[in-house]
């Protein structure tokens, strides 16, 4: 945005946190984050979301020894909900910029007896070979990227043909704006996210409504597939 005031031109441009800033911000929150998600109802909402995806046949016939990547795993709330609702035999590869978040994720997944590995890495440069995973899951990560298309293209790279991406992002609205003020993320409308998914070539996009909870008013979820 630009304004001209007399002989002066004033411009305002949105900036996003650097990787280092994101790591520092979420490392400070790592100690209380998992409990915070429980108190706000997100952990329950995540479980209900996975059950809804399963019962509506929005997912493949997932079972057994799946290879799943959780991008922006945080304290593993989304992965734990996946394991509880879909299959506890999955092998989770968790990626995050915050080492302290990864330590908590490791503790939570170990306590739940879920086979996993954690990777201190940037989603824009995932440390995996092409077509490594039966699915990628991600909750509240994409909105922190200055270039979300770049992040999604890297996610698609590691998906096997025909495999799904299950994505949760902060949605536009008053609550989304309040979250944005506190954490420096962007918010997506359904139209913006649909256009982005279409641009990178994901297909069979479906949006899924959260159960009645705060998550319904702050977040939106979708599933889309890599082409065969």
From TrEMBL:
Domain Methyltransferase type: 70-166
Native organism: Vasconcelosia minhoensis LEGE 07310
Presence of keyword Protein biosynthesis: no
Upper classification of the organism: Bacteria, Bacillati, Cyanobacteriota, Cyanophyceae, Nodosilineales
UniProt keywords, alphabetically: Methyltransferase, Transferase
GO terms under biological process: methylation
Pfam families: Methyltransf_11
Protein name per its UniProtKB record: Methyltransferase domain-containing protein
Molecular function terms, GO-annotated: S-adenosylmethionine-dependent methyltransferase activity
